[in-house]
Amino acid sequence: MHKHEIPTSTKKEFALQQEKFKAAKKSTLISVAVNTLLSIWQIIVGVFSHSSGLIADGIHTLSDLIADFVVLIANKKSHKKPDADHPYGHFRYENGASLILGIILLIVGVGMGWSAVEKMINPALIPEVHSMALVAALTALVAKEGLFRYMLHVANKVNSSMLVANAWHARSDAASSLVVAIGIIGSLCGIRILDPIAALIVGTFVFRMGFKFTYQSMQDLMDKGADDETLAQISDVLKGIPDVKGFHDLKTRKSGDFFLVDIHLELDGQMTILEGHDIAVNVREQLMKNPQILDVMTHLDPYDKDCLH
């Protein structure tokens, strides 16, 4: 029986973490700048054009700023090196941030739906607005959709679930701007009911995305294991190492966007401790070639061909 302690970060992992940290910081700061300008623009134009929808959308944009600051704080915290209290690092700050973003999406979705139902029940609540509001709404829509596509590109590039969640939050804001634009067009054409109908549809979409991110982040925080594809990749690597006669009790859990792996290796019971140690180190090195695997803990058992695990 053998357990060995291995440093939690290799040069490759550190470089990957640095790339994610810089990408997250840059994209989030851009999002803060864009959303700050948009929220001020929407609220000012909304006041002068008598558009309560545009004012509400400006306030909704402020929720993105809250989300951005959550991401900045979590990104900074998760980047901290392992310490005595957190030997596996602080990557779960990302999972916590994704949970908060998911809850924000849930609240925004419920709020949009509630407002839409109220307006559908009482169409008099939908005010007539000036055409200047439509220009502001379309400008905000284009800016937010562009921000979403940029942030999603960065998130996929560095494989960050936290940044993906924040990108989709930007898309929910773009959807709300689309609702406002449709509502303004409908109001200008005399069809006021278009606004609450579109708002209800988009509110349902936002709520659905919020539920998805909340559920996923809660699963990660509760040590949900890797998906079947990742487990199959790990198994293939282990089966490809000649000295490993077999393996069992393969366990994985999430830490941020990475996986921690525990595995019992079945080896020839007659080999020395040094030989077993070298095999365990080789197994770890082979598994760590997967950029999603943060660390591997091995336990050595004597191989028994008559024993089925």
TrEMBL record:
Topology in the lipid bilayer: Multi-pass membrane protein
Superkingdom field: Bacteria
Domain Cation efflux protein transmembrane: 29-222
Domain Cation efflux protein cytoplasmic: 227-303
GO molecular-function term, one example from the UniProt record: monoatomic cation transmembrane transporter activity
TM spans (from-to): 28-48, 54-75, 96-117, 129-152, 173-191
Location in the cell: Membrane
GO biological process per UniProt: iron ion transport; zinc ion transport
Coiled coil, from the record: none
GO cellular component: membrane
InterPro entries per the UniProt record, alphabetical: Cation_efflux (IPR002524), Cation_efflux_CTD (IPR027470), Cation_efflux_CTD_sf (IPR036837), Cation_efflux_TM (IPR058533), Cation_efflux_TMD_sf (IPR027469), CDF_Transporter (IPR050291)
Xref: Gene3D superfamilies: Cation efflux protein transmembrane domain, Cation efflux protein, cytoplasmic domain
Record keywords, A-Z: Ion transport, Iron, Iron transport, Membrane, Transmembrane, Transmembrane helix, Transport, Zinc, Zinc transport
Family: Belongs to the cation diffusion facilitator (CDF) transporter (TC 2.A.4) family. FieF subfamily.
Entries under NCBIfam families matching the protein: CDF
Name of the protein in question: Cation diffusion facilitator family transporter
